[in-house]
Design goal:
The complex is a heterodimer of chains A (153) and B (402).
Chain A: H1 2-12, E1 16-22, E2 25-30, H2 32-44, E3 50-58, E4 67-75, E5 80-88, E6 91-93, H3 102-113, E7 116-118
Parallel strand pairs in A: 2-5, 6-7
Antiparallel strand pairs in A: 1-2, 3-4, 4-5
Chain B: E1 6-8, E2 14-16, E3 18-22, E4 34-40, E5 43-50, H1 58-62, H2 67-75, H3 82-97, H4 103-131, H5 135-156, E6 165-166, E7 169-170, H6 176-201, H7 205-211, H8 219-224, H9 230-233, H10 241-244, H11 265-289, H12 307-310, H13 314-325, E8 333-341, E9 344-352, E10 360-364, H14 366-370, H15 372-377, H16 383-393, H17 397-401
Antiparallel strand pairs in B: 1-2, 3-4, 4-5, 6-7, 8-9, 9-10
Classes of the chains: A alpha/beta (153), B alpha+beta (402).
Chain lengths: 153, 402
């Protein structure tokens, strides 16, 4: 794992903001500009064949930039897992062309946080109904009042 | 709606593509799954899945609850395997806390996780069979499932939504009645009941014709579409987290991981059937190896004291009151903990800001992500085979929609 992190740091230079291992989980933090290239590199040269999970965290008022998109990758050939985090202001490049399975996960993250995934051809509602107002998993979503009832459908 | 594609059928006649809604109230969609199909005659041209009819916002609710209060919500995700959901969640919190679980509790957890796997696979067997017309299979599988529910009722007090796992261990020790009942059940299940289930479907010619070659997924499809669990192992992806990334006591148990390379619905059927047998073996080994000792960790800041001691000691009363009313603080950090749930990889990603409530909790729901494969598998097949695909993916809408 250390070799891989060093190779990535050498290859992507300042685009890698940080990397650490805590509680046995290795994390890479990258700039949004380099995200797509890094993911492609991790799949093709790093052996991370599968995107296990994709989600986001809203750090409203606590960190800048506000959002963090979190990817969990899994390498079956090397039996390794890696977390990649990408701090962003609400827009990152889609990885759906690298892993088709990112489709549902990006749609869910988009509708819950309002984070745009550039290059995803189908950013539509998946768990909520079409036209749902607001982004429910954002910290400034007022869940006591903001949730409207769906009309009869 | 404007006509998207104009087709010429085999006789050369121009036909329209028909749009058809399957669900959300279709009896074979295992709940409230809606699939929009585009059909050329009986052949599926395109399929689009619309889940969300059971969305309850579990991830948002968890942000308002203390860590203990979240446990009952996890039961209601995959409600056919509530104990494995509990398990994944409490393991994530324990990892953040750095809490070590007693040996006996680990064995009880493993035992219950495997019992839950059998229970979940029995429902899959029953409903998959019934969807394809094998009504008898339903009754045989549900007879066995009822026995498991009776056992769980003896142990946890409830048939479904058990909420038996606690942060630091389990809620209670195994009682004599449960152990005797479980031993009988496992012996009968392995020698008799499982053979009956095999007799009904495994060599059944109708069953084979409905499942063999239907819904083929290659190993590359599985990797690209993030499918896990029996779906992946039916397509030749030889990975089982119990063997390859062992947690609890799986490294001390002997078991085999069934893998098939055909990638069709029949291969996934065989994987699950063999998994049931392996799970029964594992449960027997857990009972045989069960060590003595406490079933919950001794950590007064996290675990409430036993109820009978609350009444005669002021310290215990204070601890109990504090933990129940305001919860306990969890160190700042983030973890992703996943386990091999009956339906695939179930993961919990928890971000803590040092307070008593999760700052963010994300559930990596196995069936939600496995469901994406249906859009691929359905294309080019018959509409009747879509029913096979829903069954073979073993979807539970409580987990898909969260």
């Amino acid at each position: 794992m250390d070799e891989l992190i060093n190779a990535i740091r050498e290859r992507f230079g300042h685009a890698v903001l940080d990397s650490y291992t805590r509680l046995g989980e290795t994390t890479l933090i990258v700039k949004p500009e380099a995200l797509h290239d890094l993911m492609l590199y991790l799949r093709d040269s790093g052996g991370f064949e599968m995107l296990t999970d994709l989600t986001a965290v809203d750090w409203l008022g606590r960190r800048e930039p506000r959002f963090e998109v979190v990817y969990h990758l899994h390498s079956y050939s090397r039996n390794l897992r890696l977390r990649v985090k990408c701090p962003c202001e609400g827009s990152v490049n889609s990885v759906v062309d690298i892993w088709l399975g990112a489709g549902f996960m990006e749609r869910e993250t988009w509708e819950m946080f309002g984070i745009e995934f550039k290059g995803n051809p189908e950013l539509t509602h998946i768990l909520l109904w079409d036209g749902f107002p607001g982004w429910p998993l954002r910290k400034d979503f007022n869940w006591r009042e903001d949730v409207p009832l769906p009309d009869n459908r | 709606m404007e006509k998207e594609i104009l087709f010429r059928d085999s006789a050369g006649v121009e036909t329209d593509v028909i749009e058809l809604n399957m669900g959300p109230q279709h009896p074979a969609t295992h709940g409230v799954l809606r699939i929009k199909l585009w059909l050329d005659g009986e052949t599926v041209v395109k399929a689009r899945i619309t889940p969300g009819y059971l969305h309850r916002g579990t991830e948002k609710i968890a942000e308002q609850k203390t860590y203990h209060q979240v446990i009952p919500y996890t039961d209601r995700l995959d409600y056919l395997a509530p104990l494995t959901n509990n398990l994944a969640y409490v393991m994530a919190v324990e990892k953040l806390l750095g809490l070590e679980v007693p040996e006996r509790a680990k064995y009880i957890r493993t035992l219950l996780a495997e019992l839950t796997r059998i229970e979940s696979h029995l429902v899959w067997y029953a409903s998959h069979g019934m969807d394809l017309g094998a009504w008898t299979a339903w009754f045989y599988a549900f007879r066995e499932r009822e026995k498991i529910y009776d056992l769980l009722e003896i142990l946890t007090g409830q048939r479904m939504n058990n909420t038996f796992m606690r942060i630091g261990g389990v809620a209670a020790d195994l009682n004599h009645e449960f152990i005797v009942g479980l031993t009988d059940f496992l012996a009968n299940f392995r020698t008799k009941a499982l053979q009956e289930l095999h007799t009904m479907l495994t060599d059944n010619i109708i069953w084979k014709k409905r499942t063999q070659g239907v819904g083929i997924l290659t190993r590359d499809d599985v990797l690209a579409l993030s499918a896990t669990g029996p779906v992946a192992r039916g397509s030749g992806l030889d990975h089982d987290m119990r063997r390859d990334e062992p947690y609890l006591v799986y490294d001390r148990l002997n078991f085999r991981v069934p893998v098939y390379t055909e990638g069709d619905s029949y291969a996934r059927y065989l994987v699950r059937m063999e998994e049931m047998e392996e799970s029964a073996k594992m449960a027997e080994q857990c009972l045989a190896q069960l060590p003595k000792g406490p079933v919950i960790a001794d950590e007064a800041k996290v675990i409430p004291p036993p109820k009978d001691r609350v009444y005669d000691s002021i310290e215990n009363l204070i601890h109990h009151f504090k933990i129940v009313s305001e919860g306990f603080s969890v160190p700042e950090g983030e973890v992703y903990v996943s386990i091999e749930a009956p339906k695939g990889e179930l993961g919990f990603y928890i971000v803590s800001d040092g307070s008593q409530r999760p700052y963010r909790m994300h559930i990596r729901a196995s069936t939600f992500i496995n469901l994406q494969t249906l859009e691929k598998m359905a294309v080019g097949g018959l509409i009747a085979d879509v029913i096979t695909l829903i069954g073979t993916l073993d979807v539970v809408l409580g987990e898909v929609d969260r």
